[in-house]
Amino acid sequence: MSKLVLPRLLSDGAVFQKDKPIHIWGFDEAGIKVECSLINADGSVAASAECNADENGRFSITLPAFEAGRVFAVKIRDAVGEEAVVNDTITGAVWFASGQSNMDLTFDRLRDNYPEIIASSENDMIRCFDIVSETEYSGPQEDTRTGSWKKACPENMYGFSGTSYFFAKRLHEMTGLPVGMVHASLGGSHIYSWMSKEMLEDYPELLEEASKYADPEYRASRIKRNETLSAEWFSPIDEGDEGRKGNWQNGLPKDVKDTLEMPRFFEGTALDGFSGVVWFEKKFNASKEFAGKEAKIWLGTITDSDEVYVNGTLVGSIGYLYPPRKYTIPEGVIVEGNNTVVIRITVNHGTGRITPGKRMMIFNDSCKPDAWCNVLPEGAIDLSGEWKYRIGAASVLPYPDIDFIDWKATGLFNCMTAPCTKYPIEGIIWYQGESDSHFDDYLKMSKIQIEGYRKLWGDEDIPFIFAQLPNFTIDCGDPDCESYDSWWEFREVQRRITEEVPNSHMAVLIDAGEDNDLHPMNKELVGRRLADIALDVKYPGKLFIPSTGPEIKETVVNKTFVGYEVILKFKGIGNGLVAYSLDKAKAGKIKDFAAQADGKIYPAIAELIDNNTILLRIATPAFPEKIMYLQSNTYTGDIIYNSCIENNKKVPCKLLGPFVMEV
User: What angle do CA 336, 388, 475 make, to 5 degrees?
Assistant: First the structure.
């Protein structure tokens, strides 16, 4: 067996960071001499260097920096003749992409939204090294446990992160550079999951918890606990499910009279607070032309898990709430005339739903829907409306407190980030925070994280570009409840990072979300916004539109007969301010300005009066101490953008970010 071992990042197709020394490292016999050469396409040697492995067998070789576009084979050879060759490497721009689920979301989930992008993705100048999520609590690892370099092409796209791909695509299109994305993310993860022990020295309680999970026996016991608690909750309702016993997948009993209009929350119905299994049924008619053909059934998202049957045939199931239910109905299942859809829903926490605002429908190739809107395509079968239902089994136990082992402090950093810090990069993009929106120390931790990453990569000026949380409301709760999730407050925390950390930058995304979905599909907009900031920061002269939104440069307050007027003048307006809403249901007026006076919040009537000026009218007898914009979890009307010219038309470009400003 060969003793010469290279890390996975040093594998065929690798992208090396341009204009920075190339780092080659690995393992061999202790003390052995190792030589590395970069071989040009004509067989000549572009550079070479050698070293001796240390007492642990680790060797580290630094080769000169090269400009972008150089293609090499990398040949590593030791003193006893063992050799490793890395083929088809190229110098370009390498970016590290990390965070939680909205960075992790792949084209497998996005396939219906970007079929043309996937089909036309062939480009060996865009390459991705994707690390499958794993944790390690014993300490930083020398190598990733998974990953290989893959080029953009239709067959590889389904495993690519949507955000990081669109970021790379934009950079490549605007600069011509080869772009390599090193991607490491995990849904639900916390910021401290991606931080080292040294970074968390001010948080002994987190480190104490992490140290427990470094013990394999303790970790195994927690996994066993999860399995036991889950079985104790699910087994009684599965075994006692009257639907299973009565084969309700073929249709509910004929005496069922209870109905609900779908899609909807179960709150406020007879199922309010219900946990357990409930079965739903709906009949539909299919035409002769529809019958027998393969079809798709879309049901939006469902809380918490589901099984979907068409005429008794299981067409799909998902075990948790977030993914959209998009299932294929095989040929021959749908018949002419009367058909039956049955959904078996398991509700874990008493908050069941089939998510409002999502389409429930069956369609085939003759009536494909537009993935970007909620309009039912002509010819599709509408499944919204009245559904019969009956409880199959009610749970008598509260849902167990499952231990999400992979989210603890240091675990993801040690296994997924630390091995990458030996690989020179151009910068970092980060999309995380949904799981930390209640976390008081997020600003402090972000500053420590960014400083720590720069230290580990050996570059104090690595740009750190992150995504501000977008609009979202459906799981944020009631504003009057203690559990209310104030994403708008968290956005202000994120904004402050850019004020307190040099060379940190934020993409404003208040228009890029979906109010009823934690995982919005518009990852092209996210990737482009992050990339435009990167272009401005790292590749000056390549971007001819604003990279960020307008900023207030002057504020004038005037007393009026009915209150106050506030005049806001802006810089960074591009070709002028515009008021616009991507959501047509919200378009028409600017509604998201307000003012604080005497401790109370007053709405402001806003008007865009010229290319760089907004007039606010506030009916308050007291002087407005603060002006606020977009201080809610979503936007309610037109929002303010700067503009650029495309195809001889002025179009919205980057938006004014949420803010609270003292007058």
Answer: 110
Pick the CATH number of 93-200+409-538 from 3.30.160.270, 3.30.70.270, 3.40.50.1110, 3.30.1120.10: 3.40.50.1110
Sorted by sequence, the CB contacts under 8 Å of residue 155 that are 6+ apart come out as none
Six token digits for residue 366: 């003759």
Please give the Cα distance from 267 to 213 (Å, whole number).
38
How many whole angstroms separate alpha carbon 100 and alpha carbon 272? Answer: 31
Q: Given this model, what pLDDT does residue 231 score?
A: 97
Mean predicted confidence (pLDDT) in 563-572: 97
Query: Residue 357 above 60 pLDDT?
Result: yes
pLDDT at 480 over 70: no
Alpha carbon distance 171, 94 (integer Å): 11
- What is the helix (H) or strand (E) element at residue 342, kind and residue range? strand 337-347
Please identify which residue in the block is written with the tokens 């190339």: 22
Instruction: Measure the CA angle with vertex 272, ends 268 and 274; round to 5°.
Output: 170
Q: Which of 104-118 are b and which e, b meaning 16 or more Cβ less than 10 Å from the residue's Cβ?
A: bbbbebbebbbeebb
Two tokens, residue 172: 């490549």
Task: Give the per-residue pLDDT at 484.
Answer: 64
Q: Cis (ω within 30 of 0) for the bond into 304? A: yes
For 277, 335, 362, 379, the CA distances from 310, given in Å and listed in that order, are 18, 10, 11, 19
